[in-house]
Design a protein that fits this description.
Layout lengths: L3 E7 L1 H8 L5 H9 L14 E3 L5 E10 H23 L16 H14 L4 E2 L1 H14 L7 H4 L12 H21 L2 E6 L1
Antiparallel strand pairs: 1-3, 1-5, 2-3, 4-5
Protein name: DUF4253 domain-containing protein
Organism: Nocardia acididurans
């Protein structure tokens, strides 16, 4: 039996009302189960499977093993720690000359905003979704440019062991944040 990651888009006031003022994660778990399969409608063209109540949908394009998400988070953490902490904070850093701090500032900012955002927490209110979707809009056409920085930290990972898999998972998160922003919804995910 595996552990999986499910991503949901929700009307945020209702979601908060349902889980309580303390953002109770155990209550969220109960909520996201939402009863039998009969309570869910067919998946739509955007890979959203709406609950019959219409206030929450599961993004069907993102149900993967939770190990993938954890590997994704760890690869990003290793990358961020290496580049952000050492090179970007030290002007004398000449380890990665190809990453020009002036030319690539928008790429670096978008990557840090988006990846730190999706790797930090399990609940993203609409205002956070807006920031992440904006970052994704800048990052999406340049994802391939992250390869030299992230790929070395994927070696030996048995789940997300290639940059292409990392980029695919990253793109799924971008799709989720874009769909949520278009609808004015928040995003949450759950490991089960």
């Amino acid at each position: 039996m595996g552990v999986y990651l499910s991503v949901y888009l929700a009307q945020w006031p209702r979601f908060l009302e349902e889980i309580g003022p303390q953002e109770n994660s155990s209550r969220a778990w109960e909520l996201l189960q939402l009863g039998p399969v009969a309570n869910w409608l067919e998946t739509d063209a955007d890979q959203l499977r709406w609950h019959v109540d219409g206030w929450i949908a599961q993004y069907r394009g993102a149900t993967v093993s939770s190990g993938w998400h954890l590997s994704f988070e760890h690869a990003w953490a290793r990358t961020r720690d290496s580049y952000e902490w050492f090179c970007f904070s030290n002007p004398e850093c000449d380890v990665f000359d190809e990453f020009d701090n002036t030319r690539d500032a928008p790429l670096r900012t978008a990557a840090l905003t988006f990846l730190d955002g999706v790797c930090d927490g399990w609940a993203f209110p609409p205002d956070t979704v807006e920031v992440l979707a904006d970052a994704w809009a800048l990052l999406a056409p340049r994802v391939g440019e992250l390869r030299p920085f992230i790929e070395p930290y994927l070696l030996g990972d048995d789940r997300v062991g290639t940059f292409d898999l990392f980029a695919s998972f990253l793109t799924r998160w971008g799709t989720v944040m874009t769909l949520a922003r278009e609808r004015g919804l928040g995003v949450t995910y759950w490991l089960w």
